[in-house]
Write a structure and sequence with these properties.
57% helix
Length: 602
């Protein structure tokens, strides 16, 4: 067979045809590349611009699949040109609405923001699979269309990767052999250009038209892979799960929460296996496929019970989280899919992507979505704990209390507030406080904010790794921000020093001797020639700092500054970092890094 190489004219006509067919996906890919190139250029010099750029880059990437789905929908309908462009305009407005709804920067924002974006990406990709087949259509045609779509993705990624490697080697050769100064960031910019422009255009050029899709022949390699690799693996894993099910029944114990992910993973892998074999299940020599499929779905019934029990145990003990909500939703979908395949006589495989796309969208938005439900549930659990120990007034506002909270309950309180801050943002705790949340915290780090919020109402945070045994000896460490300019006007001398309680508790510098006292809570400065000394009581400062948590690395230098009067003037102690352990309200300083400023009287 002769190899047909397209001419330049054919390439131009093909590209022009693809642009006319899919104008918005190509525009989204182009914007992704250009915004990414600019973002790589300004990432170090203009961080403010980089913040909005990242959101725009993410939305542009989302737009490729979203607009492709709309164009496939338009292509399957006999709409007039104004209606077609009206649908496209609606798609653009929806994407812009999502962009402006994002608070902060996606990559630095809460887990909620990134999960929402991931759900939208999943929804748009599943919509691509079904957009052209919302009308009545042949299942074989639907299967073949998505097979060709998947192969087009693989082929375009392969071509893009090989071309990028080739161009990179060429540029490296020019850089090293001919003396050109090619910056490292240029390679990153080249990659995003190829990804957004070349890869997108190449993939879209290979998207088939629905009317041109016909089942030519089933790939033999695919059949061998599914029949002799995928199905045996799935069956083996399911047998392992059955052995685990028998084990917990024999020992009469509750299932491990981790088993829910295994049941879902292996069930979905089995469903995918049957989906890949769908076109040949009616062939006379392939009757085993239907028999295996029916047995597979019957076999999932006990495992779905194990799945539901596993999720119920975790939610009853620790409440609803985003992940548990998503797993529970997939469990409901799996049970529905099992019943559909066992009861329905006509198996419509379009139900799979359609139902998953609908679920992915619904769990991401609305009052019954994963984020709203989990936030309300965890906030309710937090309120219940605070109310139980009288840290909540009649108006439902958190107040400073003095009740002794058991260690395990404090640990759970810390876990709940940490979850809410990291996943839903600091503002999710606002209903429990009269003051604005930003007034209650000084740090930008979620784990430190967690300690600060609890300390505000007199509760000491407990690390997830902490045990009761470690409570009698608790560590602390504090350090000042290192991006502050500290005025030292009027000082006669500056003495930098570091003391370690274990090895170097005393240090002599000139006529001065620095020493950690025996109580390990005080620092003494003694002048050997003039025979005077001052003692800095560090306990008061550490008591003040402990209200902000036991670990802070972003303190204002003034919070770590102490000034004492000396016979010949004043002495200021400026601590850069300090750490140790706390035993029964007594601080034991293990190390202290500091500077002393000597202000001598005229």
């Amino acid at each position: 067979m002769a190899l047909s190489i397209p001419s330049i004219d054919q390439i131009i006509k093909g590209a022009s045809s693809t642009i006319k067919r899919f104008p918005l996906p190509i525009l989204a890919g182009f914007m992704f590349s250009m915004l990414s190139v600019y973002g790589i250029e300004v990432i170090e010099t203009d961080p403010l611009a980089y913040a909005w750029l990242m959101n725009a880059i993410f939305c542009s990437a989302l737009g490729i699949s979203w607009f492709l789905a709309l164009d496939l929908l338009i292509e399957s309908r006999t709409w007039t040109t104004p209606i077609k462009w009206g649908v496209r305009l609606g798609g653009v407005l929806l994407l812009l609405a999502y962009y402006f709804s994002i608070e902060g920067m996606l990559v630095d924002d809460t887990y909620e923001a990134l999960t929402r974006f991931g759900l939208l990406v999943l929804t748009s990709h599943l919509f691509v699979a079904i957009a052209a087949f919302l009308n009545e259509s042949e299942m074989d045609q639907f299967w073949e269309f998505n097979k060709q779509l998947f192969l087009s993705i693989l082929l375009s990624v392969l071509y893009t990767g090989v071309l990028f490697v080739g161009l990179t080697v060429a540029l490296l050769s020019i850089d090293n052999l001919l003396g050109f100064d090619i910056k490292d960031k240029f390679y990153a910019q080249l990659w995003v250009c190829m990804l957004g422009i070349f890869n997108t255009l190449l993939f879209l050029s290979k998207v088939p038209k629905v009317e041109d899709v016909t089942m030519i022949s089933y790939p033999k390699a695919l059949k061998v892979f599914v029949q002799y690799v995928l199905i045996p693996l799935v069956t083996t894993y399911i047998l392992i799960l059955y052995m685990y099910l028998f084990k917990i029944l024999m020992q009469w114990e509750l299932p491990n929460g981790w088993v829910a992910y295994l049941v879902l993973s292996f069930s979905i892998a089995g469903i995918l296996s049957l989906l890949l074999l769908y076109p040949i299940q009616e062939q006379k020599d392939q009757t085993w496929i239907k028999l295996y499929g029916r047995g597979f779905y019957f076999g999932l019934i006990p495992l779905s019970g194990l799945l539901v029990l596993s999720i119920w145990v975790r939610i009853s003990e620790y409440g609803v989280t985003i992940n548990r909500y998503l797993v529970a939703t997939l469990a409901v979908w799996l049970i529905g899919h099992i019943l559909y395949n066992l009861i329905s006589h006509k198996k419509n495989i379009k139900v799979i992507p359609f139902s998953l796309a609908l679920i992915a969208f619904l769990v991401g938005w609305g009052p019954l979505g994963a984020f709203e439900v989990s936030e309300r549930n965890q906030l309710g659990r937090l309120s219940a704990y605070l109310e139980e120990y009288n840290y909540l007034n009649d108006q439902g506002v958190a107040v400073d209390g003095d009740a002794e909270i058991p260690f395990e309950d404090r640990k759970e309180l810390t876990s709940i507030t940490g979850y809410l801050i990291e996943n839903h943002g600091l503002q999710s705790l606002q209903p429990l406080f009269n003051k604005e949340m930003n007034e209650l915290v000084d740090s930008d780090y979620p784990y430190v904010q967690n300690e600060e919020i609890l300390a505000h109402i007199g509760i000491e945070a407990v690390s997830r790794y902490e045990t009761v045994e470690l409570q009698s000896s608790k560590g602390f460490d504090y350090s000042a921000k290192n991006d502050e300019v500290i005025p030292v006007e009027g000082a006669s001398y500056l003495i930098p020093a570091k003391l370690l309680n274990t090895n170097f508790p005393t240090k002599e510098i000139g006529a001065y001797i620095l020493q950690l006292e025996d109580d390990r809570q005080s620092l003494k400065l003694r002048h050997t020639e003039e025979d005077w000394e001052v003692v800095f009581n560090l306990k008061e400062t550490l008591d003040t700092l402990s209200r902000k948590g036991r670990s802070r690395s972003d303190l204002n230098p003034e919070e770590l500054r102490m000034t004492m009067t000396a016979p010949n003037g004043q002495v200021s102690l400026m601590i850069s970092s300090i750490g140790g352990t706390l035993n029964d309200n007594d601080y034991i300083i293990n190390y202290i890094n500091f500077s002393l400023l000597i202000y001598e009287s005229p």
